[in-house]
Q: What sequence folds into this?
C-alpha cells in the first residue's frame, strides 16, 4: 500500500509553465544572446558611472576643456586610450559618449514604440474609416525623406528645445510608421478571437479591450521589434552626428568622436582617436541585434514546447 502511494506521488505531473516562463528558459539557454546581454549591461553601467570613473581613470576628467599641452598623445600609462586633437582623454569621452548614444537610442525607441503602438492598435481595432485615415497618415509619414526632414526640423527646433532632445523628438516623429503597421496587422488578426468578442459582448470599453486584452497578446512582437529599433536608433544618432546634423558638437557621443576620422591625418596616423568609438559602437549594435534574435526565437509561439 505504501509503495503504491509512493508510486502515485512520483507520477504526479509537474506544474505546466506559462508561455512567458518557457520563453525565459529558452532565452537563458541562448549563449550568444546572454553574452550580448552581459556586454550591454556592462556598457550601460560604465556609461552611467562615467563621471565617477573619469575621476580615477583619467588625469583629464573634463570632457569639454581643451588641453593644448596634451594634444594627440598616443595610448600610455597615463592616458589608457590616448588623447584627441583637442587634448581630451579618449577613454573619458568614450564613457560619456555612451551615455549620450544610449540615451538617444533608448528615448527615440520608446517614443517610436509608444506612437506606433497607439496608432496601430487604434487602427486595427476600430477598422473602417478610422483605419483608413490613420493608415494614410502613416503612409504619408513613411514617404518623408528621412535625412532631409531631420536636418530641416533640427534646424527649425534648434534653440527652442535642448539640442539633444530635438534630435530625439525628430527621429521619433519620423520613425514610428513601421511599428504602427506591424501592430495593426497583429491586432487585426487577434481581435477575431473569441475572447475579444466575449469581452465586447459583456460591455467592456474599447480602451479596456485594447489595453487589457489585445496589447498583452501582441507584446512579444512589440518587444522584439523594440530591440531591433533600439540598435537602429543608435546607428541613426551616430550617423547624423558624424555628418554634423546630430547632437551638438560640444556634446560627446560615439558619432561625434567618429567624426574625427574625417581628417586624413587622424584616419591614417592616429587610430586611437577613432578606433575605440568605432569598435564599441559595432559591438553594441551587434549585441543588441543578437539579443533581438534571441528574443525572437524565445517568443516564437511555434517553438514554445
A:
Amino acid at each position: 500500500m505504501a509503495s503504491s502511494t509512493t508510486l502515485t506521488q512520483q507520477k504526479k505531473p509537474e506544474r505546466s509553465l506559462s508561455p512567458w516562463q518557457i520563453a525565459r528558459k529558452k532565452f537563458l539557454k541562448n549563449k550568444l544572446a546572454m553574452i550580448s546581454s552581459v556586454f550591454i549591461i556592462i556598457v550601460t553601467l560604465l556609461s552611467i558611472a562615467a563621471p565617477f570613473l573619469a575621476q580615477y581613470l583619467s588625469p583629464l576628467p573634463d570632457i569639454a576643456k581643451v588641453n593644448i599641452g596634451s594634444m594627440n598623445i598616443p595610448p600610455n600609462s597615463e592616458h589608457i586610450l590616448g588623447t584627441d586633437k583637442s587634448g581630451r582623454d579618449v577613454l573619458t569621452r568614450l564613457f560619456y559618449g555612451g551615455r549620450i548614444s544610449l540615451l538617444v537610442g533608448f528615448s527615440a525607441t520608446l517614443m517610436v514604440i509608444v506612437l506606433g503602438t497607439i496608432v496601430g492598435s487604434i487602427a486595427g481595432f476600430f477598422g473602417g474609416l478610422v483605419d483608413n485615415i490613420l493608415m494614410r497618415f502613416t503612409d504619408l509619414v513613411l514617404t518623408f525623406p528621412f535625412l532631409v526632414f531631420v536636418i530641416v526640423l533640427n534646424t527649425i527646433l534648434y534653440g527652442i528645445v535642448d539640442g539633444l532632445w530635438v534630435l530625439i523628438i525628430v527621429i521619433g516623429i519620423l520613425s514610428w510608421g513601421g511599428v504602427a503597421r506591424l501592430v495593426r496587422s497583429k491586432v487585426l488578426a487577434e481581435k477575431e478571437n473569441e475572447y475579444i468578442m466575449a469581452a465586447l459582448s459583456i460591455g467592456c470599453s474599447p480602451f479596456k479591450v485594447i489595453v487589457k486584452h489585445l496589447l498583452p497578446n501582441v507584446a512579444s512582437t512589440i518587444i522584439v521589434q523594440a530591440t531591433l529599433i533600439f540598435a537602429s536608433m543608435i546607428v541613426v544618432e551616430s550617423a547624423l552626428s558624424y555628418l554634423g546634423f546630430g547632437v551638438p558638437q560640444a556634446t560627446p557621443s560615439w558619432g561625434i568622436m567618429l567624426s574625427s576620422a574625417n581628417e586624413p591625418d587622424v584616419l591614417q596616423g592616429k587610430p586611437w582617436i577613432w578606433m575605440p568609438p568605432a569598435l564599441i559602437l559595432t559591438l553594441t549594435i551587434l549585441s543588441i541585434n543578437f539579443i533581438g534574435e534571441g528574443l525572437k526565437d524565445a517568443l516564437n509561439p511555434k517553438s514554445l514546447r
